[in-house]
Amino acid sequence: MTDTNSLILSPYERNGIAVRNRVAVAPMTRISATENGHPTHTMFDYYRRFAEGGFGLVTSEGIYTDKAFSQGYRFQPGLADDGQAQGWTAFLHDMRARGSRVVAQLMHAGALSQGNFYRTGTVAPSPIRPKGTQMEFYFGNGPYPEPSQITAQQIDDVVEGFVSAAQRAVNIAGFDAVEIHGANGYLLDQFLTAGSNRRTDRWGGDTKARVELLADVVKEVKLGISNAVPVGIRISQGKVNDFTAKWPGARADAEVIFGTLAEAGADFIHVTEYEAWQPAFEGTTDSLVALARRHAPDVTIIANGSLHTAERIANALQDGADIVTTGRGALANPDLPKLLKDQREPRTFDGSILQPIANIKHAELSMQTAS
To answer: What is the 3-state secondary structure (H, E, C) of 84-149?
Structure first.
């Protein structure tokens, strides 16, 4: 085994996270739950392949947190009631027995919701129609509707939704960690983003004010589960409806955002960019991973963004990441850790498996993992 692969396959243990290697499965929306948010055997067969393939850490798809406005997509799993949570229990025990830890990613879609079982309409920091159009491969159609401005009481309800969902994730389902989805244009990222947050109350204003809701959710979730498992947050510049978005304050924004989340007690920060190795801002050299490492030195840093090869994974680790997640790389190679150990070339991702609807398909589950 090469030195590069030895680094990738070395164990990691810090901040409550203990995994057998540094390569993990990224969260990916796969809309294969029941209509009312219960997990299915199809989902479990899909996730189990990654444990069998040697991944030490698997992050779930985004799981909605309440029966109000959090759900983003039809057939998305939820942790909004005890029944939804109980559906995960036996599966998570099985994953742990196979050597993989599973993170529950908790998500509120906000203005980007395009399929809610419980409510019509959407909410956002400000009544601003999102850019772009709904994603057809997640049953979307046409422009996003203009959201209603979320009220102060509804913001409190959002925070409580994250806390309650985290409690179910840990105390009922048995997840090994909780990741708060603060990225990719969903509700918490809408608060962080100046273009979607025009509020003049305590939740709007400069970067420090706009990141406070994210920090509050981290604090309240950690308190709500009594620090029983690690709690982290996913952060990005780009959105699912605006891939090229950048923080207008550039490095100064990065310092405030990462520093505030570290002060809030985040055990890990999951940084995602389209190409994670690229400079975060024009005219600079540091990647967003490197900036996260600098401004949150004691936090576990997880990197994501087109990191499909051994070389790119190793470079991200050398750039400041502790763990690297891969999405397309894991879909094409559910046995990626075994391939790296045996120094075999990873398979190329075939995007047709996500068409016309990006759910889990029988052909995908039938892929033979390499022995």
So the answer is: HHHCCHHHHHHHHHCCCEEEEEEECCHHHCCCCCCCCCCEECCCCCCCCECCHHHCCCCECCCCEE
**What are 31-55's pLDDT values in tens digits?**
999 999 999 999 999 999 999 999 9
Find the range with the poorest average confidence among 4-8, 299-303, 351-355.
Answer: 4-8
Q: Enumerate residues 6+ apart whose C-beta is below 8 A from 117.
A: 35, 36, 37, 71, 74
Widest pairwise Cα distance in the chain:
58
Instruction: Using a pLDDT cut of 90, give the percent of the chain over it.
Output: 95
pLDDT at 363: 84
**In percent, how much of the chain has pLDDT > 70?**
98
17-19 and 300-304: which strand pairing?
A: unpaired
Q: What is the pLDDT of residue 370?
A: 43
Instruction: Dump pLDDT digits (tens) for 156-186.
Output: 999 999 999 999 999 999 999 999 999 999 9
CA distance 204 to 370: 51
Q: Say how far residue 311 (Cα) sits from the centre of its chain.
A: 23
Q: Assess whether the previous peptide bond of 11 is cis (omega < 30° from 0).
A: no
Q: Please state the rounded mean pLDDT for residues 305-314.
A: 94
**Torsion angles phi and psi, residue 179, rounded to 5:** -115, 125
Distance CA 165, CA 167 (A): 5
Q: Which two tokens stand for residue 293?
A: 């490492």
Based on its alpha-carbon atoms, the radius of gyration of the chain, rounded to whole angstroms, reads 19
What is the per-residue burial (b if ≥16 Cβ within 10 Å, else e) of 340-355? bbeeeebbebeeebbe
89: Cα within 13 Å, side-chain hemisphere: 10
Structure tokens at 165: 């969902």
- One DSSP character per residue, 285-342 reads ---HHHHHHHHSTTSEEEEESS--SHHHHHHHHHTT-SEEEESHHHHH-TTHHHHHHT
For the cut 50, the answer to whether the pLDDT of residue 324 exceeds it is yes
Closest CA to 196 of 123, 127, 249: 127
Distance of CA 121 to the CA centre of its chain: 24
Domains delineated in the chain: 3-365 (3.20.20.70)
